[in-house]
C-alpha cells in the first residue's frame, strides 16, 4: 500500500461523496441562477459574474482564511494563484470541449481587463514578499466596487434582457417560477458545492501529505483544483445546458473574486498579512498574469472559445502542473520541459495570440466597411 496506506478509509469515502455532491450542487445552482435571472430581469452573464461566481468561490475563501490565520501563508497564496490558473485553463477548457463557449462583449471590454488589472495588482503587492492588511483592504474595497458596478450594469440592460428572455425562455406566464424557489435552489446548490469541495479537499490533502508534498505545491495544485471544483461543476453543467453566459461569466467573475475578495479578506484578517513565497513571485504569479492577459486575444477572436482552443487550454494546464510537480521533486525531466516551453511553446503561443488578435481586428474592420460600401 505504501504511503497511501496511512490514509483513513473514511477520508477516501468522503472524497468520493464530495465529488457526487459537487455535481448535484452544480446542477441545482445553475437551475436556480438561471431562473433567478429570468425572474429579476438580469442577464445570465451578470448572474454568472456575481452570484454564481462569488458563491462557487466560497471554498477558496474558507480555505485561504483558515490557512493564513494558522500561519500557512504558502497554502493561502498557492490556493488563489492556482485556482485562477485552473479556472481559466482547466475549467474554461473543459467547458469549451463540451460545447463552444460564446463570449459576450462585456467580458472582453470590461471584465477581462478588470481581471488583468487585479492580477497585476496582486503581483505588485506581492513583490516585497507579503500582502499587508492595508493592501488587503484595498483589494477588498475593489470587490465591493465591482459588485456595485455589476448591479448598475444589470439595471441598464433590463429592458432589452426582458425582451430577449420572452423569446428565449418562454412567455412569463409559462416560466413564472416563484422567486423563493429560485433562491432556495441557489442556497441549496451552494451548500452542496461547499460541503462537497471540503470533503474532496480533505481527501486530496491527506493523499498529498502522505506522499510528502510541500504546502505551496499542495496549494497550487491539490487545493487549487479542489476548491475550483465548484466552478468546474457549475461551468461544465452550464455549458452542457446551454447556459454559456453563466459558464464564461462564472470563471472570469471567480478569478476577480479570488484576488480582490479572497486574497483581500485573507490579508485583511491575518495578523501580519499573507506571506508570499519567492518561487510564487518569480514563477507562478507571472504565469497567472500571462494566463489572464492571454484571455483578451482568445476571447476577442470570434467572440467564442472553440473546442480546439479548449483543448489547447487543457493542454497548457497539464503542462503547468507537470512543471510544478517536476520542480518540486527536482526530476531530471524538468530541464527538457523547460527547454521545450522556453524555445517552442511560449514563442508559438505568443505568435498565435497576436495572429488571432490582428486577424479579428481586420475582420471587424471589413465588417464595418461593408455597410458603407453598400450605400
Under the CATH scheme, which class of the largest domain? Mainly Alpha
Main β-sheet, in a few words?
A: 2 strands, antiparallel
Portion in beta strands? under 5%
Helix content: over 70%
Label the structural class: mainly alpha
Give the neighbour order of strands across the main sheet: 1-4
Radius of gyration: 21 Å
Tally of distinct domains: 2
What's the SSE pattern?
HHHHEHEHHHHHEHEHH
Count of runs of 4 or more consecutive helical residues? 13
What does this protein look like?
By secondary structure, the chain is an all-alpha fold. It has 2 domains: 2-331, NCX, central ion-binding region (A middle domain of Talin 1, Up-down Bundle); 333-375. The chain contains 13 helices and 4 strands. The chain has a two-stranded antiparallel ribbon. It has a two-stranded antiparallel ribbon with strand order 2-3. It is globular. The N and C termini lie far apart (76 Å).
Topology:
Elements (H helix, E strand, L loop, with lengths): L8 H32 L3 H13 L1 H12 L3 H26 L2 E2 L2 H22 L3 E2 L1 H24 L1 H11 L10 H32 L4 H26 L3 H26 L4 E2 L2 H23 L3 E2 L1 H23 L3 H42 L1
Antiparallel strand pairs: 1-4, 2-3
Helix pairs in contact: 1-2, 1-8, 1-9, 2-10, 3-4, 3-9, 3-10, 4-9, 4-10, 4-11, 4-12, 5-10, 5-11, 6-10, 8-9, 9-10, 11-13, 12-13
Features:
globular; about 375 residues; mainly alpha; 13 helices; about 85% helix; two-stranded antiparallel sheet; A middle domain of Talin 1
State the gist of this model.
With 375 residues, the chain is an all-alpha fold.
Amino acid at each position: 500500500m505504501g504511503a497511501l496506506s496511512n490514509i483513513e478509509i473514511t477520508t477516501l469515502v468522503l472524497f468520493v461523496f464530495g465529488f457526487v455532491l459537487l455535481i448535484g450542487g452544480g446542477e441545482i445552482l445553475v437551475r436556480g441562477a438561471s431562473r433567478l435571472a429570468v425572474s429579476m430581469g438580469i442577464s445570465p452573464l451578470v448572474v454568472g459574474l456575481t452570484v454564481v461566481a462569488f458563491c462557487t468561490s466560497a471554498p477558496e475563501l474558507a480555505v485561504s482564511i483558515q490557512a493564513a490565520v494558522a500561519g500557512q501563508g504558502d497554502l493561502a497564496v498557492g490556493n488563489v494563484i492556482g485556482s485562477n490558473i485552473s479556472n481559466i485553463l482547466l475549467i474554461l477548457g473543459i467547458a469549451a470541449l463540451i460545447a463552444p463557449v460564446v463570449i459576450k462583449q462585456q467580458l472582453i471590454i470590461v471584465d477581462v481587463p478588470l481581471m488583468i488589472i487585479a492580477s497585476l495588482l496582486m503581483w505588485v503587492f506581492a513583490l516585497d514578499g507579503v500582502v499587508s492588511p492595508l493592501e488587503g483592504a484595498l483589494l477588498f474595497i475593489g470587490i465591493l466596487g465591482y459588485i456595485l458596478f455589476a448591479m448598475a450594469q444589470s439595471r441598464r440592460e433590463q429592458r432589452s434582457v426582458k425582451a430577449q428572455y420572452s423569446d428565449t425562455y418562454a412567455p412569463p406566464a409559462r416560466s413564472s417560477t416563484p422567486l423563493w424557489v429560485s433562491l432556495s435552489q441557489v442556497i441549496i446548490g451552494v451548500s452542496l458545492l461547499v460541503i462537497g469541495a471540503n470533503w474532496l479537499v480533505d481527501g486530496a490533502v491527506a493523499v498529498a501529505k502522505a506522499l510528502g508534498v510541500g504546502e505551496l505545491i499542495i496549494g497550487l495544485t491539490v487545493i487549487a483544483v479542489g476548491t475550483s471544483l465548484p466552478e468546474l461543476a457549475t461551468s461544465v453543467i452550464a455549458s452542457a445546458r446551454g447556459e454559456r453566459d453563466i459558464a464564461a461569466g462564472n470563471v472570469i467573475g471567480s478569478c476577480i473574486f479570488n484576488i480582490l475578495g479572497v486574497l483581500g479578506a485573507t490579508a485583511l484578517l491575518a495578523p501580519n498579512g499573507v506571506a508570499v513565497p519567492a518561487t510564487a513571485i518569480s514563477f507562478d504569479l507571472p504565469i497567472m498574469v500571462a494566463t489572464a492577459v492571454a484571455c483578451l486575444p482568445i476571447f476577442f477572436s470570434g467572440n467564442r472559445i472553440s473546442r480546439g482552443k479548449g483543448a489547447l487550454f487543457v493542454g497548457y494546464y497539464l503542462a503547468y502542473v507537470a512543471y510544478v510537480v517536476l520542480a518540486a521533486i527536482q526530476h531530471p525531466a524538468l530541464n527538457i520541459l523547460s527547454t521545450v516551453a522556453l524555445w517552442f511553446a511560449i514563442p508559438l503561443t505568443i505568435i498565435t495570440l497576436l495572429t488571432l488578435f490582428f486577424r479579428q481586428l481586420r475582420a471587424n474592420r471589413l465588417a464595418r466597411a461593408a455597410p458603407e460600401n453598400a450605400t
